[in-house]
What does this fold into?
Amino acid sequence: MATSPSAIGVVGAGTMGNGIAQVCAVAGLAVTMLDVDEAALKRGMDTITRNLDRMVAKEKLTTAGRDAALARITTGLDYATLRSTDMVIEAATENLDLKLKILRQVGACVGEDAVIATNTSSISITQLGAVLDAPERFIGIHFFNPVPVMSLLEVIRGVETSDGTHATTMAFAKTVGKSPITVRNSPGFVVNRILCPMINEAIFVLQEGLASAEDVDAGMRLGCNHPIGPLALADMIGLDTLLSIMLVLHDEFCDPKYRPAPLLKEMVAAGRLGRKTRQGFYSYT
Ligand code: NAD
It folds into this structure.
């Protein structure tokens, strides 16, 4: 059995990055969380603190456990601090060029045994790994939102990912209490390949005026037993992230069935990105 890494670097302190940092710290791992934006780091730490306080209130964590978890997280802007980590998970904005740039920087900092991973929702693991000197140490570790709540980890093997890197990642999944599925690299992997076109279709339905947002969501909750409606879920994922995923599916498969709904593009252009901007298909004031 491979050993789980003990010191984790997380690049990006946004919706996913701070969630990943939280679950790693609660599981006893040392965490270094990086961002380019000092304010994003502060927001990320505030979110983690609030979530841990809630766990204490629900008696899922002791006060000492919360303090210890917070003490395991250090934040910073400098990639050099990743040197002491043995796994780095990139969780920055969903953009190919940005991720390639970040991965080159990470590859230049970490030791030669470290696993480098990405939390990308849709970008090719094989393509991202190809910028590294050692693509065999690269893998997709796709957490789901909200990270502390969702139990799935989609583990994605690129063409060059080694068995050792996969085994270390499976051991990591166990350490952080997640249930992994292993999938082969392909646009959108497995879950988003199925989920995002469904949400996109819900946006077409709304755009065509067939039903209100509330009724679209109620239909899918009450008629299909989904715990949350597709439009509310879109707001939770972030409409910019959802649009990026649809564009990747559309570009990679060259199939018009993946075209993003014009209303989705309009919402993103207007800066209505969902919960993170307090306005999406619903208001969060
Ligand atoms: P987000 O917009 O909430 O956060 C992205 C963070 O990355 C921001 O804080 C930004 O400042 C930071 N960033 C940008 N450039 C950076 C750089 N060069 N170095 C370090 N940090 C940088 O985005 P998110 O929703 O957390 O998504 C992050 C990744 O996780 C994306 O690849 C996304 O596709 C993936 N993902 C998102 C979800 C979801 O539901 N939101 C689910 C699974 C995976």
Residues 11-17, 34-37, 40, 91-94, 98, 102, 119-121, 142-145, 237-238, 241, 276 surround nicotinamide-adenine-dinucleotide (CB under 6 Å). The CA atoms of residues 94 and 120 lie 7 Å apart.
